[in-house]
Design goal:
Blueprint: H1 20-23, E1 31-36, H2 40-55, E2 59-61, E3 69-74, H3 79-95, E4 99-103, H4 109-115, E5 121-122, H5 128-138, E6 162-166, E7 168-169, H6 180-184, E8 188-189, H7 192-204, E9 209-213, E10 228-231, E11 234-237, H8 240-248, E12 253-256, H9 269-274, E13 280-282, H10 290-296, H11 302-315, E14 320-327, H12 334-347, E15 351-356, H13 374-397, E16 403-411, E17 416-420, E18 431-433, E19 445-453, E20 458-462
Parallel strand pairs: 1-2, 1-3, 3-4, 4-5, 6-9, 9-12, 13-14, 14-15, 18-20
Antiparallel strand pairs: 7-8, 10-11, 16-17, 16-19, 17-18, 19-20
Organism: Brevirhabdus pacifica
Subcellular location: Cytoplasm
Protein name: Ribosomal protein uS12 methylthiotransferase RimO
Amino acid sequence: MSQNPPELRPDLAPRARIDIAESAPRPHQPRIGMVSLGCPKALVDSERILTRLRAEGYAISPDYAGAEAVIVNTCGFLDSAKAESLEAIGEALTENGRVIVTGCLGAEPEYITGRHPNVLAVTGPHQYEQVLDAVHRAVPPAPDPFVDLLPARGVNLTPRHYSYLKISEGCNHKCRFCIIPDMRGRLVSRPVNAVLREAERLVDAGVKELLVISQDTSAYGLDRRHDRHEWQGRDVRSHITDLAREMGSLGAWVRLHYVYPYPHVRDLIPLMAEGLVLPYLDIPFQHAHPDTLKRMARPAAGSKTLDEIAAWRASCPDIALRSTFIVGYPGETEAEFQTLLDWLDEAQLDRVGCFQYENVAGARSNDLPDHVPAEIKQERWDRFMEKAQAISEAKLAAKVGRRIEVIVDEVDADAATCRTKADAPEIDGNLFIDEGFQDLSPGDIVTVEVDEAGEYDLWGRLVS
């Protein structure tokens, strides 16, 4: 069976980062390590688990050697993700020996214990209490009530200046290639006032960019019948439009991920034109041919989507569109794939990711006829990415000479690594400042003039 290498997978979060200074334990303080795999939604779960552990008196270890037990938060999105999770569990067992497994792959405990029978416990996705119980059994807590206070923004596994904000769990779609609803259940949205309180706390703690995530962001609040809650004296619906508008008033960049192209998405575009929300939409189109989409059980059609894209750009010319696609889906003919290439030519998306179809245990697509041979999947992926790269290069070249705002992610001896409003962390491109950057710090938002463009990245100079 062909499997996607990690660099081709669309489900990866930025690498989890543990602040070594903050994680230094006091004498005799129990220490727990964390390996977080998979998507940003799993990264948020890891942050919640570690925040609870910190409040209970545990120190967070940045390495295996310093930990008395290790939690591995797994991914089960694709068979390649499952293989990566099993490998990570094995490494943790070798390096530490005391391992607690959680996350999406934990929904299949026999799959894990069949390969690694010596793990201490296995829990499923977002089962926080069960994870804590397993930690208590393995490493009893020893809290100090004078120092173990819940930090204002909890434990963060991303840099201090941006944070993922999960607004719901689960998904109501039944895409044939996806088993996430089976692992994480149907849509369960958080109350809008709870989400906004968390967003406000993050911004007050210094976060400059909020990355809104869920399995289906545009469906937020549907399960709650878009109920209303009071927020700062206003009556606000649990609805993505209301949530985005209120979040945009907090003073941070707001970036929307995993947005299905429902008709009401067009109501978000004026918020982007006004500057309340970043002009950026991450929409998983997956394909363009109607027959392929039908076999995928996807709720979209390529021609209608092109009309929506044109309307979005008419309302907000600076909007950046990001999407992911699957090539080599069962039954995909050369004509269907050519339709996808033609659609991409017309859509002119700014940021594109693509992965080759692979079977996933439990997915209904496994039983479809006419699976595409591995060599054809690879050839189509190469052609797709060649076209996507050419589009990206042309779009970036058009930015040369423009003045734009960027956020600084990292500063080293050579340059400041930044992102434009069209770039999400670690999945899109960067803008580099290699002169006069020495006084910049991560989290700074500055204006630059673009003076060079590549296939995926930009270079610029500071504007005084």
